[in-house]
Design a protein that fits this description.
Number of strands: 0
Distance between the termini: 55 Å
Shape: flat
Strand content: under 5%
Helix content: 55-70%
Radius of gyration: 33 Å
Structural class: mainly alpha
Number of helices: 34
Oligomer: single chain
Amino acid sequence: MSKSKRLFFSRKKQDVDCALDLLNEIAKVGSWTCIPDLFQFILQCEIEIAEPAGRCIETLLKKIRPSQLPQLEERLGSGLYLNDRMNSWRALNTFEENKYIASNSCLAVTSLLSFHRIGFIREPASRYLAECTSGAELPYLLIRLADWVPQVRTVAENAIEQRIKPEYLHHFAHNIALIERIKLKQRYHGLAKRTALIVQITNALLQPANRQILLNGLQDKDIDVRRMLLKMVRDSNISDLSEIVDLGVRDKDKTNRHVAIEISNRLPYLERIKLLNQLLSQRSAFIRLESLRTLSDEPTDSSTSQVMKALLDSSSAVRLFARWKLKELDTKIDFRQFYLDQIATNKNVSDIAAAVAGLGEIGSPHDAEKLFPLMLHASVSVQKSAIRTLAKLDVKSYTELFMQKLQSEASGISRAATDALIPMMHIIKVEELWLIFTTTPFPHVKRNAVRLLDKCSQWDRVGYFLLLAVSGDQEFRAIALNKLRCWHDEFRTTWECTKPTAKQTELLTIGVRLFPGELPAKLREILSLSIRVST
C-alpha cells in the first residue's frame, strides 16, 4: 500500500481512478489488518477518495469476527502498531474535526472512532452508535462497556440495557465472545453495573422462550460464538438439553463435541444411554472414545458389550481404552488370542484390519508370520494394517517385502510401506530406491521413493538429488532444488568436516556435470571441493 500512496493523494484523474480501483480490490480480497492504513486516506485525502475508503473499511469490518475486534482496538487505540502515516489519526482531537467525518454517517468510520485514545472522541462516537439499532453497533458498545472513562462507559451501559429485549437478543448471541471477554476485564470502576448487565443478557439467552435464538447461535459460522454459547449452557442449570447436545456432538470443532458430551451427563438416564450408544457409531474417533468412556462409567451388561465391540474399533486410542477398561472389570480376556481368532474367523474387512492393528499393539515377533498371508488380501485397508503391524513386530525380517509393497499401485499401501522402511534406511541400498524411482509408472511411488532418498546419508542424498534435479519432471525438479538448499544449510552446521566415499564422489561428479547453471555458486563450490578432496 505504501508504494501506491501517491495515487491516493494525487489530484490527477488517472491516479484517482487507479486509487479507486485499488480500494475496490482491497475491499474484495483484503483483511481487517488493512484498516489502520486505510483510515489515513479518510483523514488526509479529498472527499472523492475519503468516501470510497470509508466504504472499503465498512466492507472489511463485515469480514471481521467479533472476537477479533479487541485486536483492532489495540492497534488503533494504543498507537503501538501505528507508523508515521497515522500521525493524522493520533492528532485528531474532536469527533467532527475532519470534514468527511463531520458530514458522513458511515457507521464503520464512527465505530472505529470509538477506539480512539481520546475520550472526547470516544464519547460522541459512542453516543452516535447508541442511536443505531441495526446490531452492527453492538460489538463496539460492548467493548466500551469496560471503558476507563466514566462518561463513555455510562453511554455504553445505557445503550446496552435498552437493547436487552427478545427481538434484539440474536445480536447478543452473535457477540457472546465479547461478553465473555468483559467478564475477564479486571477494571474496578463500573464492575457492579457491568456484571448485572452480563447476568441479565445471559439469563435472557437461556430463557425457554428464547430457545430458538440459542439453537441458531449454536449453528453460527463463527467458532467462538458456538464455543461460548455451549460453555454458557454447560455452566447453567437449564434442563431441556436434547437439541443442544445433538447440535454440539455434530459440531466440527473438537472442543465443542467434548463439551456436548459433558452436558449429556445431565440428560435423563435412558435418554443419555440411548444417545451414547448412538454416538459410538460416529465417524469421529474422539466422539467414540468420549462416549465409550462416559458409558463405561456405569458398568452394565450393555456397556460391557459395547466395550468388547470397541476392541475392534478403527482407532488405536479407542482400542487401548477398551483393553484397559476390560482389565479393570477383571474380565480375564486374552486379548492376543482374541485378535488372532478375529483374524482367522471374522469376514468383515474393517474388523480384520482393526484386529491386525490390535495384534500389533500387544503381540510379539512370533505373531508376525501369522500375518504374512494378509499381505495378499483383496482389501487395501487390511494390507495397510498388516504392513504397519509387521513393521511394529518384526520390521527387519520383512524389509524386502516392504520394498516390494513400496511399488504398489495402491497409494495407501505404498505409503504404509514407506513409513515401515524409514527406520531401516541404514540397511537399504540407495541404488534400489533410485531404480524404483526411475522405473515406476506411478507418481505416488516416485514421491515415496524421494521421501526415502531424503532419509539417506548426507552424501548419497545430495548426489541423488542432483540427478533428480535433471530428471525433467518439474514437480521433482522443484523438490530437488529445495532439498539441495536444505542440504547446504545442514552441511555448514553439521557435517562440514566429513567427506564422500569413492562411490559417492563418482555420483557427485556425474550430478555436478549434468546439473545446469541453476546450482547455487556456494553449493557448487562445496561439492567441487569435496570431489577434489576425495579423489
